[in-house]
Amino acid sequence: MGWLGLRSRLHDGLTSFEPVPTQVTDFKSVTEHVEKVETIDHISASPPFAYTLQDPSVPDDALPFIPPAIVRNQRLCLSLANGLAWIVVDNIVYDCTKFIKEHPGGDTVIRSFIGEDCSWQFWRFHSKTIMEKWGRYLRVGRTEGIVNRFKEPPRYFGSRNR
Ligand code: HEM
Hints:
This protein is mainly α. The chain has a single domain, classed as Cytochrome b5-like heme/steroid binding domain (Flavocytochrome B2, Chain A, domain 1). The chain has helices spanning 2-15, 27-39, 68-79, 107-111, 119-125, 128-133, and strands at 86-89, 92-95, 139-142. A three-stranded antiparallel sheet has the order 1-2-3. β1 (86-89) and β2 form a beta hairpin. The site of protoporphyrin IX containing FE has 18 residues, from α4 and α5. Protoporphyrin IX containing FE is lined by residues 87, 94, 96, 103-105, 109-110, 113, 118, 121-122, 125-126, 130, 134-135, 138.
């Protein structure tokens, strides 16, 4: 019962996420990202991309650092149909480009956060065990300064399972 109640609240929360189109029509963010692209030459080196999936044995803090502008740029690349489905959880960058089609929670939720932080949303739906079992194989690097678009709503009951 508690879990059902929690699930219900979580799904209510999820429906408040902004839907993100597969073709970007959010011109405000596109403009913002274009400005960033112009100042960082090596972004245009993708694809092929310099950052690849890391071995699961590599500790998080030993992952290659990926500048936040490159991470955010994936959102713009998405609109050009050559982007990667990178998302950020706790400053770790996960490449969900292939996994997105197999994600048990569907592709839309991951697509909604490409190039963005989705830490609190992720932890509402997944345990640390799931991250270790699935996410660990999707790591491409670590980053910093990627903000979550959404303020985390208060949790009324239950505890974090991370
Ligand atoms: C590293 C990226 C991700 C991985 C490896 C991952 C993995 C998984 C796995 C293994 C499940 C099945 C869990 C189960 O059967 O108990 C799942 C379900 C789910 N995931 Fe993810 N996920 C990722 C990203 C996300 C993101 C960014 C969101 C949304 C914020 C999300 C939302 C969900 C939802 C809503 C479900 C269904 C939960 C349910 O029905 O109880 N996932 N994910």
